[in-house]
Amino acid sequence: MDMDLKTVDHLLTTTRSVRRRLDLERPVDLDVVMECLEIAIQAPSGSNRQGWRFMIVIDQEKRQAIAEYYRKAFSVYIGQSAATRRQPDADDPRLSRAEKVRDSSIYLADNMHRVPVLVIPCIKGRAERGPLVAQASQYGSILPAAWSFMLALRSRGLGSSWTTLHLFYEKEVSELLGIPEDVTQAALLPVAYYSGDDFRPARRIPASELTYLDSWEAQSTTS
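Request: output the structure for the sequence above.
Response:
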């Protein structure tokens, strides 16, 4: 089957972490969320075990509680980040981008409780209890599905953002939501329609500068 590569490439290069542009007033139909999850579970998983699980949270009190845990972790993170991060030079274009990311992250932390739908991708088993290869397999069995979910949301006019700070309080969130002890939470995805115009590809370091050929000391020069 011929694919419209222009559309596919646009989807892949413009799926952003949406924070400030989440429409916090517009309700989200759960049927749309479930439709996106049906697409997400077509992603691969280790040994095809399909151990993924998805917790959808729409209850206002539970969203409020999760948001409080997120804010507590974020306040520590943003303080440590400011203290240890090397600031770009004043004329470095990364400065303005870093400030925008920081501001939008603060906005999301302040408004997480207002996001209409929170989705927590989970995987059966405890990632931290095994060797590195087991941990890689564990997370490799849920992250592709979670990313496919975000792509499916994007194609339907919804935005999200990959966040993990609530995992500082994973036990408390698990108890709040009744998630079993042998299940690992992988992320927290705020889901809402986004406002404004379409997104553009982000500025990135060229792949040729980040790629190595046969040896770490042999950087690829292929453009």
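The chain has seven helices and five strands.
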